Amino acid sequence: MSNATLPLEHVTIEPRTDVEGAFPAVFVLHGRGANEEDLLPIAQRFPEELLVVSLQAPDRLMGGYTWYELDLSGDGLHESQPHPEEFRRSLDLVSESIEEAIDAYPIDPGRVGLLGFSQGAIASLSLLLEAPTKYDWVVSLHGYLADSHVDREPDGIEGKPVFLAGGANDQVIPASRVQTAGDRLDELGCAVEGDTYGSAHGVGPDELDDLLVWIERQLD
């Protein structure tokens, strides 16, 4: 499977088993300062039938890439928000890349998952709130709900499976922000699962184990 040309640079992990028809897929969004290969060690452990498309953020930062700059006008990093214009541009680029990938690869459009870490998680939750019917399930690892999207009440979100994970020792995105996101998604009727783990700003072993079991369930 050769890589298609999408609005965003990307890498793929091909399914390691055959299925009838098109494949279920997950689109992966990395965190600030990383790149499209950063989450591949995690993605390589996903179920064999999943087609993985890992997207690269558009702007360079610290040897890696970023989805947007931070608005620190609140109370510093712990209360940061996405820069509005850059955030909007990245959300549009991700959405366009997903649409074009569905056309270019053998992807079942009714079985599309979205998984992000940190900035990628914030983007993933925002995309869910913008178009919940486009995604079969969503994973947010160490992310929060952006203020720009927190008051949305979209049709089609009730019952949507969402896995939220935070870190008790996360000094970048405190677990309290993850919990606040979970409370809001509960209010909207999402089927929210996940936990606060003992990790810092990264995916620990227990978190990964729970995530893999959860993704397996979404594909059953």
CATH class: Alpha Beta
Instruction: Determine the fraction of residues in helical runs and give it as a percent range.
Output: 25-40%
Mind telling me which CATH architecture this is? 3-Layer(aba) Sandwich
* Major sheet details: 7 strands, mixed
Shape: globular
On the 0 to 100 scale, the average pLDDT is 95
CATH topology value? Rossmann fold
Count of helix runs: 5
Q: How many structural domains does the protein architecture include?
A: 1
Low-confidence stretches: none
**What is the strand arrangement across the widest sheet?**
1-3-2-8-9-10-11
Radius of gyration from the alpha-carbon trace, in angstroms: 16 Å
The helix-strand sequence is EEHEEEEEHEHEEHEH
Tally of DSSP β-strands: 11
Distance between the termini: 25 Å
CATH superfamily: Alpha/Beta hydrolase fold, catalytic domain
**Proportion in β-strands:** 25-35%
Q: Give the helix/strand class.
A: alpha/beta
Structural description of this entry:
- This protein has one domain: Alpha/Beta hydrolase fold, catalytic domain (Rossmann fold), CATH 3.40.50.
- It has helices spanning 40-43, 84-104, 119-130, 175-187, 205-219, and strands at residues 10-13, 23-29, 51-55, 59-61, 64-66, 70-71, 81-82, 107-117, 137-141, 161-167, 191-197.
- The two termini are 25 Å apart.
- It is globular and about 50 Å long.
- It has a seven-stranded mixed beta sheet with strand order 1-3-2-8-9-10-11, with helices on both faces. A two-stranded antiparallel ribbon has the order 4-5.
- It contains five helices and eleven strands.
